[in-house]
Amino acid sequence: MKQKTIFLCSECGFESAVWYGRCPSCKSYNTLEEFRPKADKKTPVGFTGDKTSSDPVLLKDISLAEEKRLKTKISEFDRVLGGGAVKGSVVLIGGTPGIGKSTLLLQACANLSKTSRVLYVSGEESLKQIKVRAERLLSDCESLFMLAETDIEEILSASEKISPDVLIIDSIQTMYRDGIEMSPGNITQIKECAMAFSRFAKSRGVTTFIVGHVNKDGAIAGPKVLEHMVDCVLYFEGEQHLQYRMLRAAKNRYGSTNEIGMFEMTDRGLQEIENPSASLLSGRPKASPGSCVACTIEGSRPVLAEIQALVSKTVFGVPRRMASGIDYNRSVILLAILEKRSHIFLSNFDTYLNVVGGLKLNEPSIDLPAALAIVSSFKEKPILPGIAAFGEMGLTGELRAVSAVYQRICEIRRLGFDKCIIPYQDMSAIKVPQGLEIIQVKNINEAIDAAM
Q: Which terminus of the chain, N or C, has fewer Cβ atoms within 10 Å?
């Protein structure tokens, strides 16, 4: 009997019996790839026989006992996980090659192996290469079990013998299942291997970390359904030539997806940044046009970042618009608002926006500081010393209040700023830190007058 073949969209997970040049679901081109599910009915790889009962239970009888969590002793990592990794959960860590995924997990393994049995499976590096890295990181990994293998049957067989508490798979793109006529990294192999590891983790209560590489579009390589098969999806972001790294949760069944972890890449591995605001503002130029400090909220943590703008006369017929760390479409809207409402004509000027440190800011509160940086560069007038700002800007030029005002102004004052420009709002219930002057403005024109 001929084996059934389906086509799976790598962007949204849409399944089809026939191939389309354009996915009918997400409208993406050339994303449907061939997938051959297993036709045999034998016991699936990763199943250990401890099948849970499928009998329905009453909602009131379900226990709400707190899930047991494993602490990696890396506070930034534990924060993003929601307080630690839940026993039996499957965590997918994605990022571009060389960003530091393996380094982070090796450092976490050094801490976990002191109290738990940890098995680190590498499909990309030899055991000697990992040993050299561990010595460079000065990590105490003497009690860590290592295995260099890509066949999942061999990996799960070794796991049965060791019975680890934590299993590390580095990376899912190198794993394969014997019997599938597809090379490692293919959608069929990735999906089958991920399902096998997920079955093993759930049936044995083994906390599993899976490393996944990111493709050119910024998504984890493989089908989108891979993210649906795991409990937690973390993205390790940052530029390879910059020292700062950010760990962000895109999905977390056991915690918040708003928290971030900040790290600095050094010659001895990843170092935690407990005070990211001070690190991001270090080396900031004084009295320089085109620079403004913004305060954004990442999860429960206020973070101060420097937004820089460069406005220069264009030499072409059409001015250039570029943005790094800020949404490009949002930056174009800000330029249009400044032209219409503030009469700052930028149609003959190239405009560049950048967030220092490689940080990516998506919160609406960065509208005001970004606009002030643009105006400062255009007028060649620096922002007055000691000023930070935050606020959302509307299309009519008005400024809108944002959330977590108290946390923001406390962080601004802690970093030594004595003035803060914010949208007009009721401040009677907010205790302003001593030494900080709050300047409330209603529109962008008032903010420009107050800042320069």
A: N
